[in-house]
Design goal:
The structure is a single chain. The chain is elongated, with a radius of gyration of 22 Å. The protein has one helix and 38 strands. The protein has one helix spanning 29-33; strands at 4-11, 15-23, 41-44, 48-50, 53-55, 65-69, 77-79, 87-90, 94-97, 100-101, 111-122, 125-127, 134-136, 141-147, 150-154, 159-161, 171-172, 174-177, 180-184, 195-197, 203-206, 209-211, 218-220, 230-233, 236-238, 246-248, 253-256, 259-261, 266-270, 282-285, 288-290, 295-298, 307-310, 313-315, 330-333, 336-337, 344-346, 351-354. By secondary structure, the chain is mainly beta. The two termini are 43 Å apart. Helices cover 1% and strands 38% of the residues. Mean pLDDT is 93; it is low at 1-13.
């Protein structure tokens, strides 16, 4: 199919002469991306595309460049046989939607972001990636959204944001939501994370479903700036083979309404990463952790700690602690050890709603402050007082049905 261009006039906060550019698998995708202007849409018909393209021409805040598949049910597949990233982004105001990536060789990434602002990756599929599916770790990036993507059978960390030293670059205003990650098998000595947010980067990580990773399903390294708060909420994490499901290497961070189970170490683990002393400004509230190998919620036995632990529910394997022992800097309240209690309806079938008569709904006794908690893991409204753990109601949406 030849490249078709249809000019469209658009006036959004000022006139923009935008074009819809349709391309088929036999077209030159990289050349088309070199010619885009603000507001243009590059629409890819179903088929296989040789990529390895660099996007240097972006859009405007009110007129982004959009690269999308024509048919969401038959996304165009972008790949490259060599050690080349499939797409490299070096511009602002770029949206990638309804695309498929992979397979790629080791260290060949799907979408590597070298810089920019207001970049969105949504409704894309990544399968058998030898490198990272979505990564931004070169220069600082602001307002990056990674939403409703599927990553399967990854040969490396699935998503990586920020620079390891926290000074070479940061990613701020990050939103990672509604993604599904299944299977990360990074070779040694690589860790193999699901979602990794590095030092001094921050954002909201919510509503993701992550399973069968090698390392942590989610890790947030924290920030030296106490005003730079991250939020980890309403995620389901299962089956880390070497680590805890959710790892917090530093604060400030709010961890709430998550379910984390069947991981090698803890459901949620605090770690004084690199002895940086950043475990402060941490609130872990209304989470459910189940069946993890070394405990429910774990914290270091010594060192700087400033963390509240409130209204969490934990069921552990026999002989492992549900919650950490009392220590300086830890403020527990309202948590419930469910190891020898029938707390949940059917946890082996992923039903973590309170069982009839469960102590997850205490009549009286000490309770932690709910910190204006409005909803639960499923986004349904909380009662007053809210039930302990991540799930409020026995009837809820079908968020986890395809995992049962």
């Amino acid at each position: 199919m030849a490249v078709l261009a249809t000019l469209v006039l658009a006036i959004v906060a000022g006139p923009v002469r935008a074009a819809t550019l349709e391309i088929g698998p036999e077209g030159d995708l990289c050349e088309q991306l070199r010619q885009v202007e603000p507001g243009d849409e590059v629409v890819l018909q179903p088929g296989e595309y040789r990529a390895g393209c660099v996007i240097r021409r972006g859009g405007l805040p009110h007129a982004p460049v959009v690269i999308r598949g024509a048919d969401p049910d038959q996304p165009p597949r972008l790949t490259h046989p060599g050690l080349v990233n499939v797409l490299e982004i070096r511009a602002s105001d770029v949206v990638m939607r309804d695309l498929a990536f992979g397979p790629t060789v080791a260290d060949a990434d799907g979408i590597r972001i070298f810089g920019g602002e207001r970049i969105t990756v949504e409704h894309c599929r990544f399968k058998q990636m030898g490198g990272i599916a979505v990564v931004a770790n070169h220069t600082s990036v602001r307002s990056l959204t990674v939403r409703d993507n599927v990553i399967a059978q990854s040969g490396a960390t699935a998503m990586y944001f920020g620079c390891h030293d926290g000074s070479s670059c940061t990613v701020t205003g990050l939103v990672v939501e509604g993604n599904r990650i299944r299977g990360v098998a990074a070779p040694n000595p690589e860790i193999g994370y699901g979602i990794e947010v590095k030092l001094n980067s921050n954002g909201v990580i919510r509503d993701n479903i992550i399973s069968e990773t090698k390392g942590p399903g989610i890790m947030v390294y924290g920030s030296r700036d106490l005003a730079s708060v991250s939020v980890v909420e309403r995620n389901f994490v299962r089956g880390s083979r070497t680590s805890s499901g959710i790892v917090i290497g530093g604060g400030p961070v709010l961890v709430r309404n998550n379910i984390s189970g069947w991981n090698a170490e803890g459901g949620i683990g605090l770690e004084n990463y690199g002895r940086r002393g950043l475990l402060r400004g941490i609130a872990i509230t209304h989470n459910t952790v189940y069946g993890n190998g070394e405990g429910g919620i774990t914290v270091p036995a010594s060192g700087l700690l400033d963390a509240s632990l409130q209204n969490n529910a934990a069921q552990t394997r026999g002989g492992t602690p549900a919650f950490p022992a009392a220590r300086v800097g830890l403020r527990p309240a309202g948590n419930l050890d469910c190891t020898w209690l029938q707390c949940f309806n059917d946890p082996e079938k992923l039903d973590f709603s309170p069982a009839a008569g469960s102590l997850l709904r205490p009549v009286d006794g000490p309770r932690g402050q709910d910190r204006a908690l409005r909803d639960d893991f499923f986004g349904t409204p909380r009662g007053v007082p809210a039930a302990i753990g991540a799930v409020e109601h026995a009837i809820h949406p079908n968020k986890l049905d395809d995992l049962r």
